[in-house]
Structures are given as C-alpha cells and as structure tokens.
Please model this.
Amino acid sequence: MNMADIAPVAALELATPLAPPQDRGGPAQPLLTVRNLRKHFAVRGGLFERKPRFVRAVDGVSFTVAKGETLGIVGESGCGKSTTAKLIARLISPDSGELVFDGDGVGQYGGMALKEFRRNMQMVFQDSFASLNPRLTALEAIAYGPQIHGVLKAEALARSRALLERVGLAPAQFGSRYPHELSGGQRQRVNLARALAFEPRMLILDESVAALDKSVQAQVLNLLQELKAERGLTYLFISHDLHVVHYIADRVVVMYLGEIVESGPVDELYAQPRHPYTRALLSAVPSTDPTRRTLVAPIAGDPPNPINPPSGCRFRDRCPKAMSVCAAEPPALRETTPGHWAACHLENVEGIAA
Model:
C-alpha cells in the first residue's frame, strides 16, 4: 500500500473529549527536559555476599527535546536506551532525576500530574504482539484507553475507526481482527493508532520498526513523518539502526554504558563524529558500496560489566586512542561546535578528534 495515497482523516469531535494539548511555554520552551536521570538495579549476590551490587543502567542522563523535533537515541544493546525511555514514560521509577514537560515538573507539587503527563506522552513498543491485549479487537484496543478516561463507548469507537483509517487499515476489513490475525506491520499500525487516541503531544518510539521487513518499515516511517507534520507531534525515537535514525531524526544522542557520550544535529554528527565510540558505530554500518569493505572490526570486545564499570572514561578499554587521563578522570560533555557535544578527552588535546 502506498502511504501517499491515503488521505488524512479529520479527528472526530467528541462530546466528552480528552484534555486538549496546550502549548504552555511558547515555541522556544523545550517540550521535554530530562535532568540527571539515574536508575541502578540491585543484583542479588551469593549467600555470603554482604555488600550490595547494582547495575548502573542509566547513570546521570540529561537532554532536551524541542517542540516538533525528532530526537534519536542510539547505542549498543545494553547501553540504557530502552531503560531511559521507560524512565521517561514512568513505567519504572527513577532513583533520581527530574522531568520537565513544557515548563512543568512532572509529578512534583504544583507541577504536572502523572495522569496528565501520560495523556500527553504515549509510547509505542518494539514487540507489537505483546503490546496488544489478545482478547480485544483492533477497534476495541484503540478505543479502550479513551473509555477509561471517560469518553463514551460509541464516541471512542468512532474515533478508533477514524484512526485506523488514517494509519492505513480499513476499519471494515481490519477493525474486527484480533492481534493474532494481523501481521507485524498491521499490529504496529494499531499500536500507533492506539497511542494517537489520546491526542498526545509526544510519542516515544522504542525500536518500533525494528521487527518489520524493510518495505513495511519504510511505509511506517513515512507514516510517522506524515503524522508528525499533521498533528504537530514530537518524537523520541530509539533504535539501533543508524540508517533509520539518519532518515527520521533531527538530532541524535549516543549512549554508552548508561551515559551520553555525544549529541548533536544528525547530519553533522554523522559527517563529523567527535567521539571514538560514535565513529566506531558509524563505521560498523553495512554499506552497499562494494569498494567500501570492512577489513578490520571498527570496535573490539564487549561492553564492560555495568556493575563495575571502568574508572574515568567508560569506553577507554575499547578505545584505540586511550590516554592516561582517560583512566583518571571521567570526561565531561563539552560543546565542540554549536549544538554538538562530546564527552572525550581527545577533544581537549586535538581540538577535533581524528
């Protein structure tokens, strides 16, 4: 199905609508601000182990997401991407840190209530089958959330039909199907429609196209771009596929072992990466050019143990240019060019890491 042939469907007016989105802080106010977010998971030790141990899944992550922006988060498996998303969505509670949504502190006294925050921010997961209730049809799954928030069933189902149509699934054909009767791409469209049923301002897309075939993946990505333009959405897009992130993101954050090592505009970061880890990730991307063969692995070894990470720079054990200062002092994020930040001691020595 060609997504360009699908005409936008106007949102239905409900007699009992959900709270409309409000632009409280103006266009210059970041929609989401994450400050010093941390989550350490306790690890059960042996019988005679007295000292508790912790996996430092997310260790002091801070960033902002501008209104109408798509921020991509990339990194190896286990770097903390999905945990960061779940912390932001409050699916798990952080050990410390602060979330500010359009100028209002989330869950703070006098700030934005968690219920309101979750209406404004929805999440689409990687596993499209596990995300859906096997006992609900596609129409019922999309309408369920609004009904919980007080929308009449008939009105919620009417909105569900309009959203199914908008994401490329004919309600008459797919609305009565259960999750096991849908393909992976169709289920992910249902999940996207279900998230849009709350009329959110921001979507967290956690590897939401990773399990799809490339042709279906391209259709869903184009659909996301169309919905973003139509509804003024903001995306937090998490993926291990650097090609996909380059296509959809405006800005990129690179994570390694629970920390941010680099961030910046997507084109600049891909053209001139400043951190050795970012360069290794980009070098590992498969190329269709037969003249660009990878003869030597761009990065060796596995990430260190997150229970006991290396001192100083956490990437130093795998970095070909590690110096003595890398073991003694953790590098701080520094702005190398406007809007481009990197946490690497090489920036202080070479100006631009080569």
